[in-house]
Amino acid sequence: MQRLLLWAISRYRNTGGGMRWFGIDCNFEPSCSAYTYTAIARFGARRGVVMGWQRIKRCSHRDSFCKCIEPVPEAEDVGSASR
Asked: What's the pLDDT tens digit per position in 20-63?
């Protein structure tokens, strides 16, 4: 499942991503798709999709002037934050 999700995100990004598909530009750096790809690769399909979905929900295209920098946390950062 993880490989399928990574492949699908790669195809989405290689064909133009949000700008081509939806006419929007992500407000985050790295973009939501890059963040989700890294999260899935680092934490697995289930946790990575949850992290990506939470990120996408925070992305407000009304505030397009803001490019917020929010990298994917390291594995040990996520574990310690939930304790």
From this structure: 777 777 788 898 999 999 999 999 999 999 999 999 888 766 55
- Widest pairwise Cα distance in the chain: 40
Q: By C-alpha distance, which of 80, 41, 34 is closest to 55? A: 34
- CB of 40 within 8 A of CB of 52? yes
pTM for the structure as a whole? 0.80
For residue 43, the tally of other CB atoms under 10 A from its CB is 18
How far is Cα 37 from Cα 26, in angstroms, rounded to an integer? 15
Q: Are 78 and 45 in contact (CB under 8 A)?
A: no
3-class DSSP state of 73: coil
